[in-house]
Amino acid sequence: MYIGRTGIWSPELRTAQDPVETHEAAAELDRAGWGALWIPGLGGGDVLGDAERLLRATGNAAVATGVFSIWRYPAEEMAAGHARLQQSYGRRLLLGLGVGDAATARGAGGVYRPLAAMNDYLDRFDRAPVPVPAGERVIAAMGPKLTELAARRGAGTHPFMVTPDFTATARSLLGTGPLLAPYQAVVVDRDADRARATARSFLAPFIGMAHYAGSLLRQGFTESDLAGGGSDRLIDAVVARGDVEAIGKRVRAHHDAGADHVALHVIGGRPGLPRAQWRELAPLARAE
Predict the structure, then answer these.
(1) What confidence tens digit (pLDDT) does each residue in 19-59 have?
(2) Which of 133, 120, 141 is closest to 94 using CA atoms?
(3) pLDDT digits (tens, 9 = 90+) for 151-198
């Protein structure tokens, strides 16, 4: 499945209060040329229903889950829903799935053994009455073992909160074929201090989670970088900020490091759909 070189990652496409505005915004993003619209799992809810609303609003962009937790959604139900939506909307749904954290696994009555749990879930995808093709599923992988699994059993990987250096390492593990589609947080703001504060307000809870903290430490950050919601060094490394030219430079750095696609998440500090910022970033929609 080809998803273009850039996409939009947006919780607001799931949470906006006005369904008409969400439909119109998705259609506008599609017309702008973004290759994929990514929606997060958000801890549960009707993620396939939300994906279908975006598929209905668009005609070209793929819709991707980025990502749903394997502990919250039975594989058989997700496979059946995926098959229905692919038949109805021209095979534009990409399922991104992740192992989450130990607390979520325990809450679902499972044992947190990420590699074994993901392999089992993919086995259940393969045994479904209509299996989910490997080319229509990606894995949220930040460690080498899951990255290698993503290359063997999926289209590739969608890593969260990573640097272009991480992208280069992931590409070396994946090889030349599989999809590498990193998440990239962006703040469209030329004021450095204000942009960092905006980024920190969103990322601080994730930095405090053990599995994300472990990923950041493997990327070369220190415990002091993780304190207080993230040091300036960490925030500047994982968040692109400034004008469209500065953000485009970060997108190109990921592409140069081996990314096939970069999913841009606008962090704005205001509630609602960040349509003004999406319009400002529109020149990056058809990035080469």
Answers:
(1) 999 999 999 999 999 999 999 998 889 999 999 999 999 99
(2) 133
(3) 999 999 999 999 999 999 999 999 999 999 999 999 999 999 999 999
Q: Give the pLDDT band (50/70/90) at residue 6.
A: very high
Runs of H (alpha helix) within the chain: 12-15, 19-32, 47-57, 75-89, 102-107, 114-127, 144-153, 164-174, 192-207, 210-218, 223-226, 232-238, 244-257, 275-281
Angle at 67 between CA 62 and CA 71, to 5 degrees: 135
Please state which architecture CATH assigns to domain 6-284.
Answer: Alpha-Beta Barrel (3.20)
Within a 10 A sphere around the Cβ of 214, how many other Cβ atoms? Answer: 12
Report how many helices (DSSP H) and strands (DSSP E) the chain contains, helices first: 14, 11
What's the rounded Cα separation, in Å, for the pair 178 and 188? 30
CB 235 within 8 Å of CB 200: yes
Place of tokens 């549960």: 44
Q: How confident is the model over 231-255, as a mean pLDDT? A: 98
For residue 231, what are the β-bridge partners? none
Under DSSP, the state recorded for 40 is -
Of the candidates 91, 32, 64, the residue with the CA atom closest to the CA atom of residue 182: 64
For residues 22 and 33, give the distance between their C-alpha atoms in angstroms, rounded to a whole number. Answer: 17
Read off the tokens for 210. 């053990």
CB 272 within 8 A of CB 14: no
φ/ψ (deg, to 5) at 274: -85, 60
Given this model, what pLDDT does residue 1 score?
A: 86
